C-alpha cells in the first residue's frame, strides 16, 4: 500500500542516439515525438487518461491490478499485450510490501503501471539514460519483464 506522501508521476521516455531520454513535460502533457516508455507511478486520473487516449487502450486501475486472478495475468486487449505481476518494494525498510505491477506493450511502446517503487525500476531508469545505456528493442523489454518475475 502506498503512503499518502508518494508522488503522482508520469515519466515519458523517448529513444535518442541509442539510449532513452526523459521527455521534458514543462509544457504539460502534449507529446509530439514517438514515445518509447510511459512509466505511470501512482498516476493521477489525468495522467492515466492521457496515456489511454494517446494509445487507445484502457489502463487497469489499482483495484483491477490487485484483484486479477493468477490465470488472467497475461492477456491481449485493444491491440496491446498486458502482463500483471507481483513485485516487492521497500525491501530496505522494516515493512517490505508486495505490489502489483502491470506491463503493457502496444506496438513499440512500453507502459508500466505501478503504485510503489520497486528498486529494479529505479536502477533500470538510471541505466537506460546513460549514453551507453540500453537501446530500445521489444525483445529487451520482454526479457527484462520476464527476469523480474
Q: What strand line-up does the widest sheet have?
A: 2-1-3-7-6-5-4
Uncertain ranges: 1-5
CATH class, named Alpha Beta
Quote the beta fraction.
25-35%
Q: Number of DSSP helices? A: 4
The CATH homology group name: CorA soluble domain-like
Molecular shape: globular
Overall radius of gyration: 15 Å
CATH level-two architecture: 2-Layer Sandwich
The profile of the biggest β sheet is: 7 strands, mixed
Give the number of domains.
1
Helix/strand-derived category reads: alpha+beta
Helical fraction equals 10-25%
Task: Give the CA-CA distance, first to last residue.
Answer: 20 Å
Total DSSP E strands: 7
SSE run:
EEEHHEEEEHH
The third-level CATH topology is Beta Polymerase, domain 2
Average pLDDT, to the nearest integer? 80
Task: Kindly list the characteristics that best describe this protein.
alpha+beta, Beta Polymerase, domain 2, 7-stranded mixed beta sheet, 4 helices, globular, disordered N terminus
What does this structure look like?
The protein is of the alpha+beta class and 149 residues long. It has a single domain, classed as Beta Polymerase, domain 2 (2-Layer Sandwich). It has four helices and seven strands, in the order E-E-E-H-H-E-E-E-E-H-H. The protein has a seven-stranded mixed beta sheet, sandwiched between helices. Strand 5 and strand 6 form a beta hairpin. The protein is globular and about 40 Å long. It starts with 8 loop residues before the first strand and ends with a helix. The relative contact order is 0.19. The N terminus is likely disordered.
Amino acid at each position: 500500500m502506498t503512503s499518502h506522501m508518494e508522488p503522482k508521476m508520469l515519466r515519458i521516455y523517448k529513444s535518442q542516439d541509442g539510449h532513452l531520454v526523459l521527455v521534458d513535460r514543462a509544457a504539460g502533457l502534449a507529446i509530439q515525438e514517438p514515445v518509447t516508455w510511459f512509466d505511470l507511478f501512482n498516476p493521477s486520473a489525468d495522467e492515466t487518461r492521457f496515456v489511454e487516449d494517446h494509445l487507445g487502450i484502457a489502463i487497469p486501475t489499482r483495484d483491477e491490478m490487485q484483484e486479477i486472478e493468477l490465470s488472467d495475468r497475461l492477456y491481449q486487449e485493444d491491440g496491446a499485450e498486458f502482463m500483471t505481476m507481483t513485485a516487492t518494494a521497500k525491501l530496505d525498510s522494516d515493512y517490505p510490501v508486495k505490489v502489483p505491477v502491470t506491463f503493457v506493450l502496444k506496438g513499440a511502446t512500453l507502459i508500466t503501471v505501478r503504485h510503489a517503487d520497486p528498486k529494479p525500476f529505479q536502477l533500470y531508469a538510471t541505466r537506460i539514460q546513460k549514453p551507453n545505456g540500453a537501446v530500445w528493442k521489444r525483445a529487451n523489454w520482454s526479457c527484462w519483464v520476464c527476469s523480474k518475475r
